[in-house]
Design goal:
- There is one protein chain.
- The radius of gyration is 21 Å and the shape is globular.
- The strands form 3 sheets. Strands 1-2 form a two-stranded antiparallel ribbon. The protein has a two-stranded parallel ribbon with strand order 3-4.
- 65% of the residues lie in helices and 4% in strands.
- Helix 3 packs parallel to helix 5 and helix 3 runs antiparallel to helix 8.
- By secondary structure, it is mainly α.
- The structure holds fe (ii) ion (2 copies).
């Protein structure tokens, strides 16, 4: 009994290889897109900025960064019980998200080669970075005697198709939110070193610069296609993606507040900071951002997070599936209703704000 409390049981597909977490609406996804449309894309209106970013990718500042130094050479059995479980889940989710980027960028690099050389090389070099990130996280999982079989994941997971412009909105945001997530944890632990219970976080400072550059690449790419940023449809879609990305993170993180607590962070405060920063960053390229300072914004997300907690409790119960579904419906409706109201909250017109600053 005590032992099972100390070392949580994970389902394995082979000894030491963790079976991937079940797909839900909140788990990291794998993407595919229309490669021909992407290859035919004319980037000439913003080619200079894209070439400058390509030079940065070629410089490969983090070439020597992802090296497992001797700080990892010890037993991590001190991280036990629920904390260990949450740790492994955090590493798995992060690894899956990084690997998702790797797969998409790698495929884009391959398919665009010879057709759109600047974009092809940018994607190829970003896939290099994501492979390092995913590999480093997977290696960290092995400190907890588990690993992910990334080849198995490649074949077994479903791929979501997005047209290129939706890939741009979604990946731009996921890179920028990734940057803010990593740097916020890094800065917190820098000022509270007593909470650094595992050394991977000290790699986050240089690591997040990769994510920042990837985000800048997508920003430059969207600016090369101004039509996806300046009409009424762009405004509606940008609001949609901002809200989806923020709400997904908020519901996920509040459900795992114990993980953040183990680092001395309050999950809610952490998420609010990351959302505010990402929203502000997105305002440099998106025509609109969300009014996250509106008094109802985080209140509504809290109502959705509470309903999400109830959903998780129903899923964990031993009730038959049809009964579970009936019990889930009101909570799903609550989440849906909060999100609809958040979607229709008057957004911030960033073009007007940028105009004023000038
Ligand atoms: Fe990454
Ligand atoms: Fe990235």
């Amino acid at each position: 009994m005590v032992d099972s409390l100390k070392k949580p049981e994970f389902q394995e597909i082979r000894p030491g290889v963790k079976s991937p977490a079940k797909d839900t609406i909140l788990t990291p996804r794998f993407y595919t897109t229309d490669f021909d449309e992407m290859a035919a894309m004319d980037i000439s209106v913003n080619e200079d900025e894209l070439l400058a970013i390509l030079e940065e990718f070629r410089a490969d500042y983090n070439r020597h960064h992802f090296v497992r130094s001797d700080v990892f050479d010890k037993s991590w059995d001190s991280i036990s019980g629920e904390t260990r479980q949450m740790f492994v889940e955090f590493l798995e989710r992060s690894c899956t998200a990084e690997f998702s980027g790797f797969l998409l960028y790698k495929e884009l690099g391959r398919r665009l080669k010879g057709k759109n050389p600047v974009l092809a090389e940018c994607f190829e070099l970003m896939s290099r970075d994501e492979a390092r990130h995913a590999g480093f996280l997977n290696k960290a999982m092995s400190d907890f005697n588990l690993q992910l079989d990334l080849g198995f994941l490649t074949k077994s997971k479903d791929y979501t198709f997005f047209k290129p412009k939706f890939i741009f909105y979604a990946t731009y945001l996921s890179e920028k939110i990734g940057y803010w997530r990593y740097i916020t944890i890094f800065r917190h632990l820098e000022s509270h070193p007593e909470n650094e219970i595992y050394p991977i976080f000290r790699f986050f400072e240089n690591w997040c610069q990769d994510e920042n550059r990837h985000g800048d690449f997508f920003s430059a790419l969207m600016k090369a296609q101004p039509e996806i940023l300046n009409d009424w449809k762009a405004k509606l879609w940008c609001r949609f993606f901002l809200l989806s990305v923020f709400a997904t993170m908020y519901l996920n993180d509040l459900q795992r507040s114990g993980f953040y607590a183990s680092l001395g962070l309050n999950a809610r405060d952490y998420d609010i900071e990351v959302i505010e920063k990402t929203n502000e960053t997105a305002g440099r390229v998106f025509p609109v951002t969300l009014n996250v300072n509106h008094p109802s914004f985080f209140k509504r997300l809290d109502v959705a997070a509470a309903a999400n907690d109830k959903l998780a409790k129903v899923s964990a119960s031993n009730q038959p599936k049809p009964v579970q579904l009936l019990q889930k419906l009101p909570h799903i409706a609550t989440i849906g209703w909060q999100l609809v109201q958040l979607y229709f909250l008057k957004p911030i017109d960033t073009i007007a704000v940028r105009g004023q600053v000038r």
